[in-house]
Design brief:
- The chain has 214 residues and is mostly beta strands.
- It has one domain: Sortase (Sortase, Chain: A, Beta Barrel), CATH 2.40.260.
- Helices cover 14% and strands 35% of the residues.
- The strands form 2 sheets. Strands 2-3-4-5-10-11-9-8 form an 8-stranded mixed barrel.
- The radius of gyration is 17 Å and the shape is globular.
- The protein starts with a helix and ends with a strand.
C-alpha cells in the first residue's frame, strides 16, 4: 500500500471508531432506528477493532477481496419469522451512523467486526416509519437462547444465540458495551424503543439484543 494511502486509512479508522452515541434522531425519510452521532473518545478508539473495507480491486482483476466475501448479506431470526437483506453502513458527513434507506433492510456497521470475528458486529434496523413497522420492530421480544442466522457473501451461514435483551434510555446509551471490543465474536442488534416524542422527533429508548456465536 502506498504510504499516503496507509496514512489516510489509519486516520479514517481512528475517526470512524471514536464512538459516543446520541440515538433516536428523526431521519429525513421519517424512518427511526436510533441515528447514532459519533464524537471523539480516545480510550474507545484505541481499543476497538479497526477493520475498514479496503479499496476495490483494480481493473479486470477477478480475484474477490477476502474481506468483502466475509461481509454479511442476509439476516434471519426464526423465532420472529424475520428475514432481511443486510447492507454495509458507515458514517454520514455530520458524524452520524448511516442507516438503511428501506425499512425492510438491516444495516451492518462496517467499521466494526465482521461476523465471526472477535469483537462487536453491530447491525441496525428501523423500528417504524410513516408507512408502517420496520424490520426490527419485534426484536425486543426475543428470549435468551433464541437463534439468529447471519448469511455471508461467501455462502457461509453463522448462527448466534441470544444472550441478553436490554433497553436503555437514549441519554445513557452504553456506547462502549455495544460498539466496544469483546473477547468472543458478539452480535449486537440495535433499534429504537420506548415512547415516541413527536415534538422532539425521537424515541425515548434503544433496545439492544446481544448474541454469541455458536
Amino acid at each position: 500500500m502506498h504510504p499516503h494511502a496507509a496514512h489516510e486509512d489509519k486516520r479514517r479508522r481512528e475517526r470512524a471508531l471514536s464512538v459516543t452515541l446520541l440515538a433516536g434522531l428523526l431521519l429525513p425519510a421519517a424512518l427511526w432506528v436510533g441515528n447514532h452521532e459519533l464524537v471523539q473518545r480516545t480510550s474507545l478508539a484505541a481499543s476497538l477493532s479497526a477493520s475498514v473495507a479496503p479499496a476495490p480491486l483494480a481493473g479486470d482483476q477477478k480475484q474477490r477481496d477476502p474481506r468483502e466475501q466475509a461481509e454479511p448479506r442476509a439476516l434471519a431470526i426464526p423465532a420472529l419469522a424475520l428475514e432481511a437483506s443486510v447492507l454495509p453502513v458507515g458514517l454520514n458527513a455530520d458524524g452520524t451512523v448511516e442507516v438503511p434507506a428501506r425499512v425492510a433492510d438491516v444495516g451492518w456497521y462496517r467499521f466494526g467486526a465482521l461476523p465471526g470475528e472477535r469483537g462487536s458486529t453491530v447491525m441496525l434496523g428501523h423500528r417504524s416509519s410513516w408507512t408502517g413497522p420496520g424490520i426490527f420492530r419485534e426484536i425486543g421480544t426475543l428470549r435468551r437462547d433464541d437463534e439468529i442466522e447471519v448469511a455471508l457473501r461467501d455462502g457461509t451461514t453463522l448462527t448466534y444465540r441470544v444472550t441478553s435483551v436490554a433497553t436503555y434510555p437514549q441519554a445513557s446509551f452504553p456506547t462502549e458495551l455495544v460498539y466496544g471490543p469483546t473477547e468472543t465474536p458478539t452480535l449486537r442488534l440495535v433499534t429504537c424503543s420506548g415512547s415516541y416524542l413527536p415534538r422532539a422527533n425521537r424515541f425515548t429508548h434503544n433496545t439492544v439484543v446481544s448474541a454469541e456465536l455458536l
